[in-house]
Amino acid sequence: MNNPIIWLHGDCLSPQSPAFQAHPEAPAIWVWDDALIDEWQLSLKRMVFIYECLLELPIVIRRGNVAAEVIAFAKESGANQVVTAESPSPRFEEICREIRQLYPVEVLPPEPFVRYDGYIDLKRFSRYWRVAEKYVF
């Protein structure tokens, strides 16, 4: 029997996430990634924006080591699989590798917001938007 949990991350923070679409009844988790927050020096403004988005979703919010928290949530939920959306983040593959030591991970492609093959700086929304807005409108 397929009994997944959904791991939602910052690269697909949406109720339209392919994981939610594929498994609308599955329990979902978001983990504040302490290492990423430190590395990217995320501003309080950006973290508040993310938090406000999370409050609109049926999701459990945790903080710490992402892989460890996702694994713990899967165990607590009696899950046999983790489902998530793909991400361009280098940390994403590392986290998936850790989770795969205990659970299969299904990675679903999200519907792209823009169709663009060049480099976009994902650390700052304004830099991303300067490129993306040309392809959206």
Low-confidence stretches: none
Specify the structural class.
Answer: alpha/beta
N-to-C SSE string, H for helix and E for strand: EHEHHEHEHEH
Can you tell me the CATH architecture? 3-Layer(aba) Sandwich
| CATH fold naming | Rossmann fold
Arithmetic mean pLDDT: 87
Major sheet summary line: 5 strands, parallel
Rough shape?
globular
SS summary, helix count: 6
CATH superfamily: HUPs
Provide the domain count. Answer: 1
Number of strands: 5
Rg (C-alpha, Å): 15 Å
Largest sheet, spatial ordering of strands: 3-2-1-4-5
- The CATH class is Alpha Beta
User: Helicity, in percent?
Assistant: 40-55%
Strand content: 15-25%
Care to describe what's here?
This protein has 137 residues and is of the alpha/beta class. The chain has a single domain, classed as HUPs (Rossmann fold, 3-Layer(aba) Sandwich). It is 42% helix and 18% strand. The chain contains six helices and five strands, in the order E-H-E-H-H-E-H-E-H-E-H. A five-stranded parallel sheet has the order 3-2-1-4-5. Helix 5 links the parallel strand 4 and strand 5. The termini are far apart. The mean pLDDT is 87.
Could you give the topology of this structure?
Blueprint: E1 4-8, H1 18-22, E2 28-33, H2 34-40, H3 44-54, E3 60-64, H4 66-77, E4 81-85, H5 90-100, E5 105-108, H6 125-136
Parallel strand pairs: 1-2, 1-4, 2-3, 4-5
